[in-house]
Design goal:
Blueprint (H helix, E strand, L loop, with lengths): L22 E8 L6 H18 L3 E8 L4 H13 L4 E4 L3 H13 L4 E3 L6 H4 L1 H4 L3 E3 L6 H14 L4 E5 L3 H16 L6 E4 L8 H9 L4 E5 L2 H13 L5 E4 L17 E4 L3 H4 L2 H9 L8 H21 L3 H7 L2 E3 L2 E3 L13 E5 L4 E3 L2
Parallel strand pairs: 1-2, 1-3, 3-4, 4-5, 6-7, 6-8, 8-9, 9-10
Antiparallel strand pairs: 10-13, 11-12, 13-14
Helix pairs in contact: 1-12, 2-3, 6-7, 12-13
Length: 357
């Protein structure tokens, strides 16, 4: 395993005029080699840019390559303990963070992850005591957002729910169906379709005969594009919505204008101007995990500063405070998950997804 260490020093005084800046030693764990290297480097670059832009304290980043593996994740944690970091940011993979957390917990070092969505990471917090806080949404937050948004907007419509039979598609569809049923709403049509066909004329015909005017599709972008195309070919006005899989590219059939997506905003679309300027100054493209890495570093620094000022543990600060970041205000619930569901409704305008206000 190749481990890299990076130290960034900045000479600046406290805003209060103290004689010297607060020294902060922060660990950063990311896959910096092998298959996920590109994503890990995005996270690292974003965090480094944030550390350089802060200029208020002496920030020292100890960087470790966790390679998205349990073995390397545990090694990274031991490195952070040896280097006496106060907080760790990073981790993009479940295997590495789950191996690291028991070690970091014993050392009293909290972790802020912008990438791991696995529900069990925080669901087991009461049993494990893992001091983990995540900027990334939980895996089930998409399902919850789909149910809330679709039901709110379509409760007076003749809507249908279909899925492609995959775990992802079926979970979205079943959760929506169950939530609708709890509110006394019944879809006019429910079906599991065969995915990756050249056309879905038969499925579209069944939707029309059922009287559906709106349909939620638990499936990928390619199938949704084909369903929309075939509905248009039959002069069938059908409102279509899907999940964040609609962000994927590569299908041969263009996606129709007006298709709805319940998904996450792209970080660059909602990032603060200060963060975008800092990344630009460092010649960093604000893609992937660059901005989440920037935001995670901001949370870590703000928590350490408040912990020093109030003489309280960093984990206690993370559990009870709100932090201003490049991605907007951030605070965590009792499990360490994002307190607000970040999923939103978007409409495809023929070129990109625009948020529906």
């Amino acid at each position: 395993m190749r481990l890299a260490s990076l130290f960034l020093f900045m000479a600046a005084g406290f805003a209060s005029g103290a004689a010297h800046a607060l020294e902060m030693r922060i660990g950063l764990s990311a896959p910096l080699t092998e298959t996920a290297e590109r994503l890990g480097q995005q996270l690292r670059q974003g965090a480094e840019a944030a550390a350089s832009a802060i200029g208020q304290h002496d920030v020292s980043l100890a960087v470790a390559d966790d390679r998205c593996s349990a073995e390397a994740g545990a090694a990274a944690a031991r490195q952070f303990v040896e280097q006496r970091v106060s907080v760790v940011i990073g981790f993009l993979c479940t295997e590495s963070i789950e191996a690291a957390l028991p070690i970091l917990k014993d050392a009293g070092i909290p972790v802020i992850t912008p990438g791991v969505r696995t529900n069990s990471l925080t669901d087991n917090r009461e049993r494990t005591g893992w001091p983990v806080y995540r900027l990334a949404p939980r895996a089930d937050q998409e399902e919850k957002a789909v149910a809330e948004i679709v039901i709110d907007r379509w409760r007076n419509q003749h809507f249908a729910i279909i899925d492609d039979g995959t775990i992802y598609g079926r979970n979205l569809a079943e959760n929506l169906r169950a939530a609708a049923e709890l509110q006394g709403l019944k879809p006019v049509f429910i079906d599991t379709y065969r995915p990756q066909l050249d056309n879905q004329i038969g499925l579209v015909g069944r939707l029309r005969r059922a009287g559906a005017t709106h349909v939620f599709v638990g499936g990928d972008r390619s199938d949704i594009a084909i369903i929309a195309r075939d509905a248009a070919s039959l002069d069938y006005e059908l409102a279509i919505a899907g999940g964040e899989a609609l962000r994927a590219e590569g299908n041969s059939v263009p996606l129709a204008r007006g298709v709805l997506m319940i998904g996450l905003p792209l970080p660059a679309e909602i990032a603060s101007e200060d963060a975008l300027q800092a990344l630009e100054a460092a010649n960093i493209v604000p893609d992937g995990y660059a901005i989440p890495g920037y935001a995670a570093l901001q949370v870590a620094v703000a928590a350490l500063e408040q912990a020093e000022t109030e003489n309280r543990p960093v984990a206690e600060i993370l559990s009870s405070s709100e932090f201003e970041t490049a991605l907007g205000p951030v605070n965590f619930d009792e499990k360490g998950d994002p307190a607000q569901n970040p999923y939103r409704l978007f409409r495809f305008d023929g070129a990109e997804f625009m948020e529906v206000q």
